[in-house]
């Protein structure tokens, strides 16, 4: 396709021909290569009825005339042409020659005639059996022998400079050189295809896939159209066949899409992108429907693409380069290098052989320039990747700066908010501390030392305020002592202690109830009544134990809702279990019959009422609760100690057992001991 397009590009070039000489060609010994085409004469055969014997006659030989141009395009349906050249061997040696007439299967026939023979005496030369790419005929030329070579060209495209004499050694040198150059070119092409295919599979950028498609279609077209045309195609598959025209269209499609993706024409140069889209759709349309057209029609459709495609691609490249696209520089250079090679190859069809090239070596220039184009296009892809990478790095840096600024702003907000929270927390803590003062004011003293008894309290909130409380009331010779554990701890628990304390105070002090079980029932009723408005949200209550002691007789009456009571009496440890009911909950009874424990205390006897925070506190090696058994062993070993000292050591033992474990609940333990001065009835 490029070959036809560039034919139009070089129409304006000056066409220089060779003056055909009438004299015989004097061959030198082992000349290597000798072009005899410019020395030939030609004769048209419009009726296709001429025979070699006629043409060797004197009359017909006079009708041959100089060609006056090295290139003769026979067209699509024109008649064959005969070419005549006389050659002489001035040496004393017989020389073996190869006559090269063109590409393989280009329908040429060669006849040899000696001037001293009659016109009917001629030799039909057979193709050389070792011919690969070109059509070769072998013959011998004796010493001082002159012969006429008659060539009948039936191919639609033929070049008289393809008439060349060469020896076998020169032919194999050319063949090996062409093979090395082809291996180098197609090897480089395969490497670049494989490398960019790996890039596509790793980066997933479609431009690399289109580069691969471009190289595949371009390499295939070059292989068919330039290197192996005669070997691969059949006799009917020439430059003017339907298949030949259509094989150029995939190159146009691939190059167009590759250019759009690499140069970002949709964004950088939208007008050029529209023209490229037109070329793309036009090429696809011709490729799809061209199979139904005649070669004459396809010539007018496909040939302009050879002129239009380079203009579009170069125009888009220039615009993209002016827009600052670094890859466009290498892209334009790649196209420029390739056009140099293709122009040199195409100009040969008009007899313009640049750089001293011949019809047999012009494809070298195409390969060298094509290899340069492949490398430069790969370099353009590299520049595109570097530009994208640079933009990504710049974006990442901008993102880092943005995130740093956001982090600083966020840090400032966090500091400000933290300060606000600290101030708010301090105000909250101040409120809780003040609530603790209020709560402590409601609680009795922690040390009672009367003549008839001593009372101590181990009171240790988990938080600032506690959900446990104790209550002590002495009225005449009757002593009431209560320990209770409310729902929760902290502020919610402290709120419950207020309700619980007021309920016990009301039941004992104001209502003067005498039975501990009645006191617990009344407290449950009062708590339920006080929390009635909150029933829809929470279900709160408490557990508690109530002990009434007659100081005259030492009789202790005890009722408990779940909390345990421990009595140390005459060297024996007695545990009293509370009833399995709770106080103040929605389902808590208000007329429960509590079990009343009655014990007559003597001098030195002790009573301990504790909340479950002491029993349940985890610790030790395995994180088990402190437990009742461990508490009992401790009280047994410390019964001889002072009551206040015993409770203090109990708190220390609990902290030692807890070690690194967190506190789980409030602790409240109320202890009573009859003193040595107690008077018992």
Automatic annotation (TrEMBL):
One GO MF term attached to the UniProt entry: phosphatase activity
Transmembrane segments: 183-201, 208-226, 242-263, 275-294, 300-318, 330-355
InterPro entries: 7TMR_DISM_rcpt_extracell_dom1, 7TMR_DISM_rcpt_extracell_dom2, Bact_Sigma-Reg, PPM-type-like_dom_sf, PPM-type_phosphatase-like_dom
Transmembrane found in the keyword field: yes
PPM-type phosphatase domain sequence ranges: 450-674
Domain of life: Bacteria
Coiled coil: 393-427
Keywords linked to the UniProt accession: Coiled coil, Hydrolase, Membrane, Signal, Transmembrane, Transmembrane helix
Record keyword Methyltransferase present: no
Signal peptide residues on this chain, from the entry's feature table: 1-22
Protein name per its UniProtKB record: PPM-type phosphatase domain-containing protein
The organism of origin for this protein: Candidatus Lambdaproteobacteria bacterium RIFOXYD2_FULL_50_16
